[in-house]
Amino acid sequence: MRHGESMWNEKNLFTGCVDVPLTSKGVDEAIEAGKRIRNLPLDIIYTSALIRAQMTTMLALTQHHCMKDPVIMHHETEQARIWSQIYSEDTTKQTIPVIEAWQLNERMYGELQGFNKQETAEKYGKEQVHNWRRSYHVRPPNGESLEMCLGRAVTFFKEHIEPLLWSGKHVMVVAHANSLRSIIMYLDKLTSRQVINLELSTGVPMLYIHREGNFFRRGSPIGSSEAGAYAYTESLALYRQQLD
């Protein structure tokens, strides 16, 4: 699930790895997302190190039927691990561990971070900005390409999340447009051309079933207000851009 609308989404600014919180709309989106997944089994959550993804995680979990407490697990240092450890077995059973990982952070937009997207397009040209935002190999000035973002996000997914799926665990990942585009490219076996046209909505969960090493997309759990989880064709992607 992509996080709910952030304050810089609302202002149409390049956000990247700048750590900004949700808007009130983003809060509502996170709660609605929680209602969509409230009846799905859930054992563990992975989220990025950025507050907008973590806020979305916590707000969504307030709606889950299990009524368990989401607890961020701190493993940055041995001392952090010891200080945040839960010693009661009964309490542990009533918690859902939340693992934060910088590898799931949004793509780092370099020197574009903080600039308005429309004004940047007027300064550098729409085609140049489109290449920075949507191409697979092109990097923004001193930033990451989607290919680079994919390298860290998918590697983390393979090393940390897939083994849990093999063991039968139910996992939720709450992250960002580009880190999730990278993971979906891997799950759906998209080409570098196809992933360019992949658009993700804020606050809309997407369900995948893992079976014998294969991933099957099952769409978005039904909510009280319907929204497309992502546009899968160039025409739909262009339409979404016009709306944005």
3D architecture notes:
Pfam families: His_Phos_1 (PF00300). Belongs to the phosphoglycerate mutase family. BPG-dependent PGAM subfamily. One of its GO terms (molecular function) is phosphoglycerate mutase activity. The record marks 176 as: Transition state stabilizer. This is phosphoglycerate mutase (2,3-diphosphoglycerate-dependent). The protein has a 4-stranded parallel β-sheet with strand order 2-3-1-4, sandwiched between helices. The chain has a two-stranded antiparallel ribbon with strand order 5-8. The chain has a two-stranded antiparallel ribbon with strand order 6-7. The chain is of the alpha/beta class and 244 residues long. It has a single domain, classed as Phosphoglycerate mutase-like (Rossmann fold), CATH 3.40.50.1240. Helix 2 (24-37) crosses helix 3 (51-61), helix 6 (117-124) packs across helix 7 and helix 8 (146-166) crosses helix 9 (177-187). Residues 224-233 have low confidence and may be disordered. It has helices at residues 7-10, 24-37, 51-61, 78-83, 89-93, 117-124, 126-134, 146-166, 177-187, 192-196, 234-243, and strands at 44-47, 69-73, 95-100, 171-174, 199-200, 208-211, 214-217, 230-231. The protein is globular, with a radius of gyration of 18 Å.
